[in-house]
Amino acid sequence: MNLLPRRGSLRRQEAAAGWLMTVPAIALLLVFLVAPIAMAAWVSLSNWTGIGSPFASGVSSVGMRNYAALLTEPGLAQQQLGESLRNNLYYVILVVPLQTVLSLGLALAVSRKRLAGRGFFRTAYYFPSITSSVAISIMFLFVFGNAGVVNAVIGYLGAHGPDWFDNPSGVLHLVYSGLGVTQPPAALADHGLLGMPWWEWLAGPSVAMIAIITLAVWTTSGTFMLIFLPAIYAIPAELEEAAIVDGANAWQRLRRVILPMLRPTLFLVLTLGLIGTWQVFDQIYLMSQGNPAGTTLTPAYLSYVESFGNQQWGQGAAISFILFAIIVIFTILQRLMLRDRGAT
Amino acid sequence: MSRRTRRLAQRTLLYLVLTGCAVAYIYPFLLSVGTAFKTDPDATAHPLNPVPSHWVLTAFNELGQADFLRWLANSVVVAVLVTAGRLLFDSMAGYALARLRFRGRGAVFSTIIAVMAVPGVVLLIPKFLVLKQLGIYDSYPGLIAPLITDAAGVFIMRQFFMSVHPSIEEAAKIDGAGIFRTYWSVVLPIARPALMTLTILSFQGSWNDFSGILIAHQSPSLDTLTTGVGRLVSGQLGTGLQYPLQLAAAMAMTVPVAAVFFVFQKYIMRTGEGAVKE
Asked: Which of A67, A222, A316, B60 could be stapled to A125 by a disulfide with Cβ–Cβ 3.0 to 4.6 Å?
């Protein structure tokens, strides 16, 4: 029969095909992303010990007790969370600005039209981004090892490099003692937050963490360079030419023309940077396991150790949700701050 | 200083800085490759020299004995199946979300955006719980299934199809081809560039995935390169450091992903240069 199907049946066909084609993806996402979150939410409120199903009859709710142990009750759990938050906070504060500035600088440099070896430079800067965290971690254990490249170079310069991964001293503590402050003032030693005295909060990243921070900046700057490049090419050439005609120097052109045009991309890079840096896990697991003296412990790694290692699943899951909340709060704060600056 | 010499000085400085950075990015790799062929004492005695005093294959022989080939096979299985799955599922869903009108499309798309916003590390414990519940923890399906679709891939494909004019598909439709027929023989060939991008991202993502594989299994026989080599390294930290062995493992596991990168490079490094778009 050559009769064309009626319009309604074509529509129905399209709707059916639409669902058929999205069902595999959406079902997998629901099963492996949405359902797990609900399960973990339950576990974070329970006393499950990892044996059997968390929905078995022996498992009961403990209300907010797991969260209370982490946030309000003095004890080891609270102290470790405080420590991990401090470590990760310094990591975020250093990595996000450094990787953003470095990747923007690299992108501006390699976007020049008359640059010999442009392709080579791009590939060189991007290559660490495709390498696995495992391989990079091994390389950095070697490079920052006691007899590694970094210490060899420091040695040539006439100084003595530290035992990077065994050194728990906070770099700010080192600065304070350089200024003659070796004993914490009583106000900072006796009071604190999350079981840690303020003096410890102000320790700065440890020497070991500095090595991991270097790794992070080195690895991610290529990825972000690649995000900046299309945005730089999208800036109309006339805009820069007009600025040159007006007598603007390179710095003024960057401040007044290029950066404002790159605002959306800058926002994206900062957001991705914040989200990524709060999740540092692989490098900690592979390189330091939170050592030395807990100065490279991060919430993501702590949550893994608590649940998979110590079978404290409720507490481990609770740490995950606290981390989730922190990431959401930071993203919102950053959004508000950037929006305000744009308005004035 | 004349204008010309100043420009020349500026250019020289730019190249010096760029080359310095390139050395900082590449030298660690050169050093690692070289050290993989060194003896243990040679590796610690000359950390700055990438050329071994004696070339030896000890590290690679040891790797062969340390189940390296088994990890390699597991990595290949996971990466190939995950990539194939993502190409199919992501492109289908992306196409449907961009082109087909059906009730609930908006809700499906919002779900995908929301899922993209969930930080991956937060999902480690949840994913383990669901794998246990489904009874596929510590099995190949457990390694592969959680990775086989990703929200970001669906999003990339949808954006791609939104940017392509539907005229070619309309022609196919008028010729009487059904929706699936059109998708398979008209849409997919058009989508080649986007599929290439997705191929690299998926292969790279699954090949390099450490934490997802870590929480999905416990049997050493299911280790992929990331968890296998990772175990090798963290297990040895206490005892003497065998840099050549570790670096040999690190470099060997990088070769396949580097090969894929260099083959498909233009799809990733395509950065809109000189193109007038949108």
From this structure: A222
